[in-house]
Structure formats: C-alpha cells, structure tokens
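CORE FACILITY INTAKE
Project code: CF-77B
Contact: R.S. (postdoc)
Sample description: multi-component assembly, two entities in total
Requested service: structural model of the whole complex
Turnaround: standard
Below are the sequence entries exactly as provided by the requester. Do not edit them.
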Amino acid sequence: MLPSAEIILIAIALLMLGSATLAMSLRNLIHSALLLVLNWFAIAFFYLWADAEFLAFAQIIVYVGAVSMIVLFAVLLTRRQAADNTQKLRTASRTLSGLLAAAATFILIVWAIFKNNITAANPADKLPPTVDVKEIGQALAGPQIPALLIVGVILTATLIGAAIIASPIEKTED
Amino acid sequence: MTRENSILETFPLAIRDWVCAFFPENLHWLVSGLLVIIAILTVFGLGFAFITVAERKFLGRFQNRPGPNRVGPFGLLQPFADAVKALTKEDIIPAAADRILHFLAPCIIVAGTLMCFAVIPYGRHLVPADLDAGLLYFFAAGAMTELAVFMAGWSSQNKYSLIAAMRALAQLISYELPLLLATIPVVMVAGSLRLQTIVETQSAAAGLKAGFLPNWHLFSPWGISAFLIFFISAIAESNRSPFDLPEGESEIIAGHLTEYSGFKYALFFMGEYFGLIAFSGICATLFLGGWQAPYAALEIIPGYIWFGLKVAALIFTFIWIRATFLRLRIDQLMRFSWKFLVPLALINIGAATFWHLTTDWQGAWWHVLRWFIALTLMIAPYSAIGRRLFSGLGTRTYEYAPE
C-alpha cells in the first residue's frame, strides 16, 4: 500500500532538482533564497529515506535553521539595485558554456557510477548499514576525534574574527 | 496487572486498536496516524483555546481585576467569541505585498510548531513517533518557525515589519543556543536522544534524590541550572513577555505581524501558544520526569494525567512571569543571552560531567560533598559573571505611589 522506495526517491529527486532549478532561474533574490531552503529540506528528506535520521535532523537544524538566516541577512544587507547590472544575463555564449559544464559533470558522474558495477553487486550487500546515534557519537569521540577538534578550532577562529569585525573602533585618547 | 499494563494507561491504545479493526491490515499505519493527528489537534486545539482565556483571567487577577467574565460561566467561552471575531474580520493584504509568502508565513509557523508535538511522550505508551533522535527532531521542527518569522516580516513590504523581523530573528537565534546547550547535560546523563529513555531515567523506581525528593533531573544541582536556562530560553523562543519586543505594541506596533489581520493574525498566535505548549511538554519531559509520578506510591494515577498537570503548572508559570516582569530592550536581550546564559550553560555542562562521573560516591558525607562541589561549580560563575555585567550600574531605587 505504501509507494515503493524507488517512487519515493524519484519524488524526492524531483523536489530537489525542481526547487534548485527554480531557485537559479527566478529574478527575485528572496524567492531564490527561499527555494534554496526548500532544496535543503528535500536533501533532509533524502537522508530520511536512506535511514540516516541523525543526519536528516542535523541538516534541518544547521541548514534551514542557521545557514538560511545567513543567506537571507547577506541578501538583504547587500541589495543590488537594478542599475548595478551592467551585463546582459542571457547571452548565447553563456548558455552554451553552461550546457557544456552541465554535460561534462553529468558524464563524469554517470561514468563513476557505472564503473563501480553497482547493479551486479551481491544482493546481500544491498541492505543499507544502520548507524545508531550512539555509534556516531562514539565514532566522533574516538577514531574521528581529529575532525571534531579541527571543527572546534575553526569555529573558535570564526567567532573571534566575527567579534573583532563587529566591534566598534575605539578612539584612544592621547 | 502491572502498572505498565493497567487499564487506565492503555485505554488510548485500546481505542486505537478498536478503530483500526474496521480497516484492512495494510491501512493500519494510515488509520493510526490519522487518529493520532486528530487526537493531538483536538486536545491541543482546545488547550490553546482555554490557555488564552486562562491567561487573560490570570493576568486580570494578578492586576487586581476580574478578567473576561461576560461570555459563558466565568468567561470560559471567551475563546469561541474570539474565534468568531478572528474569522469574520476582513483579511487585508497590502497592495505591494508578496502574496504567496504573506500567505505561507502563518501556515509554516503553525505547521512547524504542530510537528514538534510528534515526539513528546504524553504517557507510558503514548508517543506518536518514537524516534531514536527524538530531541533532535524537536529542535529541527522548531527551526522552521524562525524562517517563517522572516518571511512574514519581509513579505509585508513594510520597513518597520522588516526591521522587527530582523530583531525577532536575532532574538530567536540568540536564545536557541542556550536552549540547546541546556539540554546537553540531560542527554549525557540519559545516554540517548530518545525521549522515552530520558523519561525512564527519571523513574521513581531508581530511588529518591537526597532521600526525599523525586528522582527528577530538576532536583540535581546541574538540573536546577539547566531547567532555569531552558525555561528562560523557552520564554524567549516563543516571543513572550518579558522577551516580546518583536511584537510589543508600544515598540513597533506589532512587529512582523503589523500587516496581518483576521485569521492569519490568529494563526500566528496559535503558533505561538502551540510553541509554548510544546516547550512546556519538552521541559516537563527533560527535567520534571515527563509522565512519571513523583513517588512510586502515586503511580495509580496514569501517566498522561501527571504530564498534563506538569504542563499546566509550567504554563501557569509562563503566565505568572508575563504578569510580573518588564519588557527587555533588544540590547539587554542580546547581552543577557550571549554574555550570561551561554557561559552559564557551558559551565553547567562541566558541572553535569562532574556529577555524572561521581555517581559511585556512596555514603552520606560523600553525597554532601558531591552536591557541594557541583553547586559551587554553578553558583560561583553565576555570581562572578553577574557581578561583572552589572558593575557599572548604581543601586536600584524604587519610588512608590503616594497612599
């Protein structure tokens, strides 16, 4: 009675690609930003489809909850006037080079998928690995601890930099 | 018949099984899902209605006046009169407004806060979606509402709405950090993100804290601090007084809600009150033992009644705080969050780690020492930071009206 896994995957892929296409093609920047947020939701649904619960909710909290704010603040604080645009957007050379880049990426990805012979794999290997939240935690605190420490250092540097940039310039009295 | 399977605890499951029996086997997931949705909408929809009248009555009593008392006995049918008013008001949309976003913003707020209700354990067997990462799901569903606040402010094409939406957004993301940091000690002690597991670690069967207190996280030294930080951040996250600068009437008319009228305005407030109930539910789950009774002898009363009593007590405290405190300015808000709550929450994680690693200290004097060290780890930074932040201000003087 439930639609099969493939149909759900195709629906999620259509949502993801459709929102990305619309986001890239609309003129209104805020609408593009909000469609990009819809794209991130679709990625989270994809993670849920692949049984990666923790990753899906982390995706929503980080991307929809935080990165979307950054994008919207940046868009709103650096508003482009219509007169700033000095180039024509849709020229023949731009369309051609866009299509070439997309075709090259597509061929590369398809070649990488078929090179690994996924369809001829052992059926027993087709079950996805189930990763517990607890295992993720233990992996992060154990073998993958360098990643956590490096991210912590980058975050500290970012916060210090943001505080310095945002602080008012104080005039010292001589 | 054990406590787990007593008739009072399991009768909601019996109702669900009885309804599902009418449908074929492969539709049971759909029918039980729809039943849960109908139950949540009914219970929390009526809860929202009666919280609005309870708030107005309590605010009235705090301010020495009766509150609404015309509609129905003691004014209890007031929310239905308010609903009729909201539904029949003209829906005004500014001519230059972005119609799609203007329409979507209240819907997304209500959708986000309703989705938060899916993981809260209401009773011993009553969790709509028993996810392994339940707490993470709760915060993910709440993240959508912040986006909707921005959409509301921007789509109104009103510069005051936009400024207010930016301030509201700044407040929401500032207080999300202490909110999440305050829940980390609970997850650490419980060892899981699953909310039923967190409730079960606070069961009365594992003994009482300090001999007479219920075994709730609230009654441990790190729990008091974490509960207070979570509570204050929840008030800020649902834009309630004293953090209601985004929608205060004397500040910026109605902030991001200025251009909304009629039913959409009611939807925004429905979202805010649903968020309040959801935060009370999670607070009760994390710190007050969820659906557990305080003492083992009281477990005759089923879990959902205890849960309802705890949520009601928390909502009464929210209303009490609204009646008591003054509104904070935006810079006071931000300073309070970043300079006070975040460092305290981080130090609280350290105190909770100490508590968690010393659970095997047995004996009365060791127990006292453990409490003393953990409390010192919390209270010393609190007074140090408090002293530092208030260092430039003079003593507070009060003037009272003449008799």
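Facility notes:
- The radius of gyration of chain A is 22 Å.
- Chain A touches chain B at residues 1-2, 30, 34, 37, 53-54, 56-58, 60-61, 64-66, 68-69, 72-73, 76, 132-134 (CB under 8 Å).
Invoice: internal transfer
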